[in-house]
Write a structure and sequence with these properties.
single chain, 456 residues, alpha+beta, Beta-Lactamase, 3 domains, 5-stranded mixed sheet, extended
C-alpha cells in the first residue's frame, strides 16, 4: 500500500464514519422529537375539541331553557325550541342536530329534506347503527361518540372522522347533540411532520455538502508531491484541523436543527398556555353561584388537563426523561410507592424473580402505568391498602397492582370515555412496547391490574 493510499485510508475513512454517525444521530433525535411532539399535541387538541362540543351543547340547552324549564310540553313550545336550535348554524360544519328518542330526525340544518324521517336503522359506511348509539349515549347521561360523517363544507359526500357530544332533553323525549370533524387534527400533525421531514432533509444535504467539500479538499492536498516527512506531517496536521472544524460545524448544524424543532414546541406551548390562562380568567370572572360552579366544571377540568399537557411539554423541551435511566425499574417503583403512600392508603412494594435487561421505553411504560394506577387508587378506590408486585419470569416481566377498595364495573368504565382515560392511557402505553393490560375488579375483592411485557 502506497503512502498516498495510507493517507487516503486513515484521513478519509474516519471522516466518513464521523459524518455518518453525526447524520444518523441528528436524524434519530429529530424523528424522536417529532414523535414526542405528536404524543403531546394530539391529546391537547382532543381535550380542546371536547370542551368546545360540551360548551356548545350546554349553551344550546340554556338558549331553550325558558321553554323547557317552564314545564310546558305542548307542541307549540317544542316547535319554538326546535326552530331556535335549527338556526344555530354557522353555515359550515358547526351545527346542532335534534332527534326524538325513537330515532325521528327533528332538526338538522344540513339535512332539511330528511326532517321527519325515522333514522333508527340508519347505518354509517362502517355498518354502525349511528343514531341508536347516539341515543344510547344520551340516555345514559350524555357523552361523546366517534363516527364518520360527510363533511358538508368540502362539498363532498366522502365520510370524515367526527366526534359528537349528545345529551337527553329531559321530559321532551329528545336527543340534542353537536359534532366536530377530526381531520383538521390529522392535517395539523401532518403539516408538523412535513416540516420536520424538510428540516431533516435540509440537514442531511448540509452534511452531504460539507462531506463532499471536505473530501475534495483532502484529495486536492494528496495530489501534491510529498517529498519530505515534515511537509507530510504539516499537511496531516492541517487536515486534522480542518476535520475538527468540520465536525464542529456539523455539531452546530445539529444544534440549529434542534432549536428549530424546539421552536415548534415553543409555539404550541404558548398557544396552550394562552388557552389555559383564558379559561382560568373566565372562570374567575363568573359569579360563584352553585349553578354556575356546576356548569363550569367542564372548563375547570379542561384547564387542569391543559396544565398536565404543558408539564409534559416542558419535560420534552428540557430533554429530560420520565424516569432516571441510571436506576433499575425495581428501584424506581420502590421510590414511587414510598412517595405516593399515605396514612389512609399505605402502599407496599415487592420484587421477585430475575428481571432481565429492559429498554428504557419499556421501563417508562411500566413506571407510568404504575403511577397512573396508584393515582386512581388514592383518588377513587377508597382503599385501606394497596400493593405493587414486580415479577421477572423466563419470558416476560409482570407488574401486578392490587387494592382492597370499592372496585368498579370494568365493562361500564371502558364504555364510558369520560371515566376510562387512565385505563386507556395505560393500555396504549403498554401496547406501544408490545405489552398488555388485564383488569379485574369487584366490590368484595377490590381491583387487580396485571401489566405484562415480553422480553425483547
Amino acid at each position: 500500500m502506497t503512502l498516498r493510499e495510507k493517507i487516503a485510508l486513515f484521513a478519509v475513512l474516519p471522516l466518513v464514519l464521523a459524518l455518518c454517525a453525526i447524520a444518523l444521530t441528528v436524524r434519530h433525535h429529530a424523528i424522536s422529537l417529532s414523535q414526542q411532539q405528536r404524543e403531546v399535541i394530539k391529546p391537547a387538541y382532543l381535550a380542546m375539541k371536547d370542551a368546545e362540543l360540551k360548551n356548545y351543547v350546554e349553551f344550546a340547552m340554556r338558549t331553550i331553557a325558558h321553554l323547557h324549564e317552564s314545564g310546558r310540553t305542548d307542541a307549540e313550545a317544542r316547535e319554538e325550541a326546535r326552530a331556535i336550535l335549527e338556526k344555530m348554524d354557522d353555515g359550515r360544519d358547526n351545527y346542532l342536530f335534534l332527534y326524538s328518542l325513537d330515532g325521528t330526525l327533528l332538526a338538522h340544518p344540513k339535512q332539511i329534506e330528511s326532517v321527519g324521517e325515522n333514522m333508527w336503522n340508519f347505518q354509517d359506511p362502517a355498518g354502525k347503527f349511528l343514531i341508536q348509539d347516539l341515543i344510547r349515549v344520551a340516555r345514559s347521561g350524555g357523552g361523546f361518540e366517534d363516527y364518520v360523517w360527510p363533511k358538508y363544507s368540502t362539498g363532498s359526500l366522502d365520510p370524515k372522522p367526527k366526534r359528537a357530544y349528545v345529551v337527553e332533553v329531559p321530559g321532551w323525549g329528545w336527543m340534542l347533540g353537536t359534532g366536530v370533524y377530526l381531520d383538521d387534527i390529522d392535517d395539523a400533525l401532518s403539516e408538523i411532520d412535513s416540516r420536520v421531514s424538510r428540516n431533516i432533509e435540509d440537514t442531511m444535504l448540509w452534511i452531504a455538502g460539507i462531506a463532499f467539500l471536505a473530501m475534495v479538499v483532502i484529495f486536492l492536498g494528496l495530489l501534491r508531491n510529498i517529498r519530505e516527512r515534515t511537509v507530510l506531517d504539516d499537511r496531516l496536521s492541517e487536515a486534522n484541523s480542518n476535520l475538527m472544524a468540520l465536525t464542529q460545524r456539523l455539531i452546530d448544524a445539529r444544534a440549529e436543527e434542534e432549536t428549530r424543532i424546539k421552536y415548534l414546541h415553543g409555539g404550541i406551548q404558548s398557544m396552550l398556555t394562552a388557552i389555559k390562562v383564558n379559561i382560568e380568567a373566565a372562570l374567575r370572572a363568573l359569579p360563584q353561584t352553585p349553578q354556575l360552579i356546576k356548569e363550569s366544571a367542564s372548563f375547570r377540568s379542561a384547564a387542569k388537563q391543559l396544565g398536565g399537557v404543558l408539564g409534559d411539554l416542558r419535560k420534552i423541551m428540557k430533554g429530560t426523561s420520565i424516569i432516571d435511566p441510571n436506576l433499575s425499574l425495581s428501584d424506581q417503583l420502590n421510590e414511587l410507592t414510598l412517595a405516593m403512600s399515605t396514612v389512609a392508603t399505605p402502599i407496599e412494594f415487592a420484587a421477585v424473580g430475575e428481571i432481565k435487561y429492559l429498554p428504557l421505553e419499556v421501563n417508562e411504560a411500566l413506571f407510568m402505568s404504575a403511577k397512573t394506577a396508584l393515582e386512581n387508587i388514592i383518588k377513587h378506590a377508597g382503599a385501606s391498602r394497596a400493593s405493587v408486585l414486580l415479577e421477572g419470569t423466563t419470558s416476560c416481566v409482570k407488574m401486578e397492582i392490587r387494592d382492597n377498595g370499592k372496585g368498579f364495573d370494568v365493562e361500564l368504565v371502558y364504555n364510558n370515555p369520560n371515566s376510562s382515560i387512565g385505563l386507556r392511557s395505560m393500555k396504549d402505553d403498554l401496547k406501544v412496547v408490545g405489552g398488555k393490560l388485564a383488569v379485574t375488579s369487584s366490590p368484595s375483592d377490590g381491583t387487580r391490574l396485571v401489566a405484562t411485557v415480553p422480553y425483547p
